[in-house]
C-alpha cells in the first residue's frame, strides 16, 4: 500500500482504509474507481443534519439540512459558536457533552433543542464521534419526529 492517498496525495497512517483528507476508500483509489464515491455530494444531499465541529463549540462545516431544519444560512451557522443557537435550558448539558467529546467519548444518544431562526425550538437527536488528538467532532443529528411538522 502507498504511503500517500492516490487521489489527493495526503500522507496515510499505516493501517488506513480511508484517506483522512478526502475520505476515499484506499481500495477504490488503487483501482481508479474512486470517482464513483463522492462524499461531498453525499454530505450535501443528506436528509439528516451532518456537521464537522470543533471542541471549541464552533461548526467547521454543516450540510444544507441544517438550513432546512433551523432556518439559518450556512454563513450564519459558521460565524458564531453553535451554543448561540441552543435553547438556554439546554446549554449546560450541551457544554458538558462537548466536554465528553473533547475527552474522547463518543455521543451515542444526546438530545438538545436549537432555536429556529423564527424563534421556535427544534429538538435534535445527536450521535457524534470525536477524532482523537484533533479537536474535531463528526456529528449527525435528526429532527425529533414531532418537530418535523414545523419544517418547510
Structural notes for this entry:
- The protein is of the alpha+beta class and 152 residues long.
- It folds into two domains: 1-37, no CATH class; 39-150, 2-Layer Sandwich (Beta-Lactamase).
- The chain has five helices and five strands, in the order H-H-E-E-H-H-H-E-E-E.
- It has helices at 26-31, 39-45, 64-70, 74-79, 91-102, and strands at 49-54, 58-62, 107-115, 121-131, 136-143.
- Strand 1 and strand 2 form a beta hairpin.
Question: What's the topology here?
Answer:
Blueprint: H1 26-31, H2 39-45, E1 49-54, E2 58-62, H3 64-70, H4 74-79, H5 91-102, E3 107-115, E4 121-131, E5 136-143
Antiparallel strand pairs: 1-2, 1-5, 3-4, 4-5
The second-level CATH architecture of the largest domain is 2-Layer Sandwich
CATH topology of the largest domain, what is it called? Beta-Lactamase
The total of helices stands at 5
Q: In percent terms, what proportion of residues is strand?
A: 25-35%
User: Sheet with the most strands?
Assistant: 5 strands, antiparallel
The first-level CATH class name of the largest domain: Alpha Beta
Give the strand line-up of the largest sheet.
Answer: 2-1-5-4-3
The overall strand count is 5
The percent range for helix content is 25-40%
Which structural class do you get from the secondary structure elements? alpha+beta
Mean pLDDT: 87
Specify Rg, calculated over alpha carbons: 17 Å
What is the count of distinct domains?
2
Q: What would the principal axes of the Cα set say about the shape?
A: globular
**SSE sequence, one letter per element:** HHEEHHHEEE
The low-confidence runs, each spanning 5 or more residues with pLDDT under 50, are: none
